[in-house]
Design goal:
Chain lengths: 191, 191
DNA sequence: TTGCAAAGCGGAACCGTGTTCCGTATCTTT
DNA sequence: AAAGATACGGAACACGGTTCCGCTTTGCAA
């Protein structure tokens, strides 16, 4: 994942990398994840070349900015499983958490679906980190008999991600609710 | 919606418009809905200016190309309601139909979510035409007591559309199934 | 048939974005 | 202080959408 690991020899390089991370975080909030690279560079007070040296692809930058939150989301999985009354309840809560994360990051979900720019890496990162967590929740809920076992974690993750697309720019659309409905669709009937 | 209504004075203008529609349809199949405008113009054997004169925005072109199929989808709603055993079954079938339409049009769903180019018009067209149909199905199924009545047609439409994003480029992802699950989530429990 | 105004055409040119590349500046080490 | 390594900046290029305007075609009228 590039040299995002903050370990460089030169002081200016480290300073610039941090400046870029800060600038990117700020710009992402106001202008969305797809903000022009030039804007981020400008905000950080560095040239365009510098941004590309530190983060070879846009995805690397986005990942670096959101790494902590993705990590938190991943760690919440097992935690919820331990603290919830049933595995299904844990799955519900985790889905909520994940949706919140996607929706509050202006355009993140949309960006990840955008075939255009090299966002496949981003997609891959999310999958790598969160798929196992989702799978664990899904399996637990299936094992407890609360849900059907015929949907794999990959599809559920993609489905949740997709439902979040554009959620932040449309007040008539409530992604969290639709995701809840989707998860509810997994539930065995009769209950 | 522009002069898409094939009524022009000059013969060459009408010919070119048809050539553009044919070319666009062909290119959409092979290169997706987001194919470069230049490619479509080239395929039709006309200049770039011509394409913009006939279809002021990309969306107008896309709409013109798919108008028939959208129409068919709209008309299928009432028909299914009449021919299905229950309103809920009709809703299920219609969702399937709609998903098929979106998924088989290379990138249509994705394009509609793409904030970038003027695809809002496209979005608006789909909504105008299909929302009432969806609403009717939803209301019927709610009235029959098969589903909960607390999700409006707009959100369901958006949800279905979103679930179809990227479905054609990922063999591990089955949009139809997820949409079925979402619809199932509407169902009242207990059965 | 011919003339001519209206309608339509083509594509060069412009804009905004991502990305590359290399001469120059800065840092670190000795 | 000098030299080598490292990083920087931003001009330049690629690409796709869109505009604009001089030129061509068409159809009507004389």
């Amino acid at each position: 994942m590039s040299d995002s690991a903050t370990g460089s020899k030169r002081k200016d390089a480290r300073r610039n990398q941090q400046a870029l991370l800060d600038a990117a975080a700020a710009v992402f909030v106001t202008a969305g994840v797809e903000a022009p690279v030039r804007d981020i560079a400008a905000k950080a007070g560095v040239g365009i070349g510098t941004i590309y040296r530190h983060f070879p692809t846009r995805a690397d930058l986005v990942i670096a900015v959101y790494r902590h939150q993705v990590e938190a989301c991943a760690e919440a999985g097992p935690a919820l499983l331990a603290s919830s009354p049933t595995p299904y309840a844990a799955l519900e809560s985790w889905a909520d958490l994940f949706v919140d994360f996607l929706v509050t990051k202006h355009g993140l979900a949309t960006a990840m679906r955008n075939d255009s720019t090299g966002f496949e890496t981003l997609h891959a990162y999310f999958l790598d980190r969160l798929l196992p967590v989702c799978a664990q929740l899904l399996e637990a809920a299936a094992a407890s008999g609360e849900i059907r076992a015929d949907l794999d974690a990959y599809q559920l993750m993609r489905g949740i991600g997709n439902l979040c697309v554009g959620a932040e720019t449309d007040t008539r659309y409530d992604a969290r609710r639709l995701v809840a409905l989707l998860v509810a669709g997994l539930r065995r009937r009769v209950g």
